[in-house]
Task: structure prediction
Amino acid sequence: MMHPARCLLIVFAALGGCTSTPEPQPTPTASLVGTWTFQKRSSVVWTGGTPTTQADMQPAGAYATTFNTDGTFVSVTSPTYGSWTVRGTYTHMGNTLTTRVNTSTGTEIIVKLTDHDLITEQESTSGGIRTVMTEEYTR
Result:
């Protein structure tokens, strides 16, 4: 004769095998391609192990960057904040964004990318001081 607990275990195991778990659906990936308007920038600076947050004085809307499908980008300031244009190339692989302007290369980590929001972080260390700069854009 089978022990009652063992019977319950067999029944639960059998029932568990009959339930279906939906297959995970791929998450749609938002595209970097398009125009992104600058919203804000902040930096966290570590000096001697103590972090300090610094807000940037660059106003929202001061510039916009357009990433094109051919791997080029252009950043243009609003006439209210001066006039300059920067053109270059970019690659976007996973959560890494690499931009090139002339001989300079910059690498940023994409923290958030949705149809309407882009948040990037760039880390640097100089003279023992570590800085993480965060920039936020919308479209």
